[in-house]
Amino acid sequence: MSKKIICAELINKFEKIFQCPICSSPMGIVDLKSLICSNNHTFDIAKQGYVNLMTRSLASRYDKELFESRKIIAESGFFEPLYRMVSEWIKNDVRLEEETVKILDTGCGEGSHLSRIKQKISSHSTGEVLGVGIDIAKEGILVAAKHHSNMIWCVADLAHSPFKSNTFDVILNILSPANYKEFQRLLNDNGIVIKVVPRSDYLKELREVFFDEPEKQSYSNQKIVRRFNANFETVDMFRLCYSVSLSKALISPLIRMTPLSWSATAEKIEALLNMNLSEITIDLDVLIGKK
Ligand SMILES: [Zn+2]
After folding, report:
1. By residue range, what is the domain housing residue 122?
2. Does 202 count as an annotated binding residue?
3. Fewest 10 Å CB contacts: which of 28, 46, 76, 122?
4. Total domains in the fold of the chain
5. For 149-158, how does the pLDDT look when each residue is reduced to its tens digit (9 = 90+)?
6. How do residues 198-248 score in pLDDT, each as one tens digit?
């Protein structure tokens, strides 16, 4: 079966979660080909197995190489402790047996986080787990759809998201900008939002090489944490700090996966490639909130 048909059938099965990003009316799959609203706004399913629901075009510096690099890094086990912790939380908090658990990853990029977390939850669930990933970067969604066909992948703008209110049990927002108004709308009353933000030591080995000014080498997430607390009742918050050993083959994808390198000169990138970095620090805050 083609990727397009598999995608259309999965969306067809869950078409009730969609609403038109233009006029907010209900949507349905027509001819296993397009997602169409009751006012005939039409979004075709792409042959690569995703649907583009953008209502305007947005330029993004996030290119294919960046997402392929993220995939390599994620698959090397970089974020495994994070996946373990997040999926434990979901397993303990969300009633997995009853009906389909719906998880939305906002800013999913190439889909590695969602796919791995879903896999971990599914192995402990007798019910079905639906994973939906959205990102404004089409290049990310293309990589996601290429490697994972059992989830719904949408190119979509979080500010005009194509889903009905009170739809999701879990909203993931991992190292990506939030839209709390939309999170409030999309989350069901018992649902949880899991936001992952970098702390000061996140990838500090890269910062130390890329930035000369000490104030740029460090980073504070205080404002982000305050905004989260103002929008959701924080039910848990934990810090996750660990170091990952790096093989030489991972250094180049590590540099390419992060916008930290965008402002770095070629000399600095060269210096980093030559310094035999053997470990990198992961330092994150995981915020868990309810409405
Ligand atoms: Zn419409």
Report:
1. 49-290
2. yes
3. 28
4. 1
5. 899 999 999 9
6. 998 999 999 888 887 766 666 788 999 999 999 999 999 999 999 999 998
